[in-house]
Write a structure and sequence with these properties.
The chain is an alpha/beta fold and about 220 residues long. It is about 20% helix and about 25% strand. It has a single domain, classed as Rossmann fold (3-Layer(aba) Sandwich), CATH 3.40.50. It has a seven-stranded mixed sheet with strand order 1-8-7-6-3-4-5, with helices on both faces. Helix 2 packs across helix 3.
Length: about 220
């Protein structure tokens, strides 16, 4: 694990919100100008993702697999933030695997944190399958806890969690995270490599700190 939020909670808006919802007009000069500083470079991400993929493959070759029928590992990516990480991770996992996708959204307007709705469920059964959940960032743990309870009710053979970024200091619900790319101790608003603000910045190749004025001008509080 390398020491260095859940973006769906880090700014007080849901995954469905976009720049248009906030009336934000972004300059065409480039999104990089809105980044205060690079926190994790593209090179650091690539190195760590390779290490994680190799570690996961070793574990599932060495006894982590519990599927009674010996089927391939099922890797589940949580949309949308995990997509770049998922794509890079599975390409360095030298084991048989399948992947599926799930999309969730948190409720707002007075409902308690952690209540989520499923926007897209899995396309296949996970009954007696080995499942690896891939997240972009784990912060409060509320959404991931909901997903875990949902999956456990479907009786998989095993469930493990892999996240690119972990922020345990903000945890409200304890969740078992088995594979961590980077532990983030700083209380900053991060974007890039799948992480967004109002659906933007996901395509940046690095993970950076968003300038405070960007989300404050949009009426969104930082953490």
């Amino acid at each position: 694990m390398i020491s260095l939020s859940d973006t769906r909670f880090q700014s007080g808006f849901s995954r469905a919100d976009t720049a248009a919802d906030f009336g934000i007009i972004f300059s065409m000069k480039g999104l990089r100008e809105e980044i205060e500083r690079v926190l994790i470079s593209a090179e650091e991400i690539a190195r760590r993702v390779k290490e994680l993929g190799e570690e996961i493959a070793r574990d599932y070759r060495g006894g982590a697999a519990k599927d009674p029928y010996g089927r391939p590992l099922l890797v589940v990516g949580i949309l949308k933030g995990a997509m770049p990480f998922l794509a890079d991770l599975i390409r360095v996992m030298d084991i048989p695997l399948e992947y599926d996708l799930m999309s969730v959204s948190s409720y707002r307007n007075g409902t308690s944190p952690g209540e989520v709705r499923i926007l897209k469920d899995l396309d296949r059964s996970i009954h007696k399958r080995d499942v690896l959940i891939v997240e972009d960032i784990v912060d409060t743990g509320n959404t991931l806890d909901h997903i875990l309870r949902l999956f456990r009710a479907r009786s998989p053979a095993s469930i493990r969690i892999c996240t690119l970024i972990d922020k345990p200091a903000r945890r409200q619900v304890e969740v078992p995270v088995h594979y961590v790319g980077f532990t983030l101790p700083e209380d900053v608003f991060v974007v890039g490599y799948g992480l967004d603000f109002a659906e933007l910045y996901r395509n940046l190749p690095f993970i950076g700190v968003l300038k405070r004025k960007i989300y404050e001008e949009a009426g969104v509080a930082g953490r």
